[in-house]
Each structure stands twice: as C-alpha cells, then as structure tokens.
Amino acid sequence: MTYVITENCIKCKYTDCVEVCPVDCFHEGPNFLVINPDECIDCSLCVPECPIDAIISDEDITDDNRNFLELNERLSKKWPILTEFKDAPEDAKEWENKENKLQFLEE
Ligand code: SF4
Ligand code: F3S
C-alpha cells in the first residue's frame, strides 16, 4: 500500500504535505510533487495537510486516476526529495480543482 499524489496538485504544489512525512518520501518536480511508493509507510499524516485533497490512498484509485500510480513511481526516481515547505506558485489559487491539468505536467 502507498499514498499517491493526484492531478489536483499540478500547478498548485502547496507543499504543506512534505514536513509531516516521517520518512521523507516526497519528491519535487517543476510543477508537481510525487510520493515514492517504495518508501511510503502508509501513515496517512500527509492527507489532511493538502488543502486541495490531492493525496489519496492507492486503495481509492479509480480508472480515471490510475495513471498517477505510475507517475508517482516513475518520477520519484527522477526528482529530488523535498522536506521543507516552500511558497506555492503565485497563480496556484487559479489552478485549484481545474480539470485536465495533466497536459501541463512538466517532467
Ligand atoms: Fe509520508 Fe505518511 Fe504521506 Fe506516506 S502517507 S507520503 S509516509 S506522510
Ligand atoms: Fe501538492 Fe497538496 Fe502537497 S497541492 S504539494 S499534494 S500539499
């Protein structure tokens, strides 16, 4: 089992989630964060920290967001670990809950 960051994080990247993680398994890309599924210990502490509910359990994955399992696994191998809060993008509010943000993901 692991927790997974999903589409709503793209271009919002609030980073409230990273500091509560006991195993430092968040990785940061240009406009999205991912969780390393091999390190996540399923504690769920990060879930309530995200103000836009972008983090879910892999048990709650549906056919619509199944691709985010692969994205978290693959990009966590590529991107550096982030452990400290940082300011969100200036236009983050405008991107909250927008649909079809995957096309804007920068790898
Ligand atoms: Fe870290 Fe726990 Fe969130 Fe996994 S569920 S990413 S271990 S805070
Ligand atoms: Fe993304 Fe939410 Fe963390 S927007 S960076 S999953 S607090």
Write the layout of secondary structure elements.
Layout: E1 3-5, E2 26-28, E3 33-35, E4 55-57, H1 67-76, H2 92-95
Antiparallel strand pairs: 1-4, 2-3
Give structural notes.
With 107 residues, the chain is largely without helices or strands. The chain has helices spanning 67-76, 92-95, and strands at 3-5, 26-28, 33-35, 55-57. A hairpin with a 4-residue loop joins strand 2 (26-28) and strand 3 (33-35). The chain is globular and about 30 Å long. Iron/sulfur cluster (SF4) binds at residues 3, 20-21, 23, 25, 35, 40-46.
Shape: globular
CATH class category name: Alpha Beta
How many structurally independent domains? Answer: 1
Largest sheet: 2 strands, antiparallel
In the CATH hierarchy, what is the architecture at level 2?
A: 2-Layer Sandwich
Low-pLDDT residue spans: none
Q: How many helices does DSSP assign? A: 2
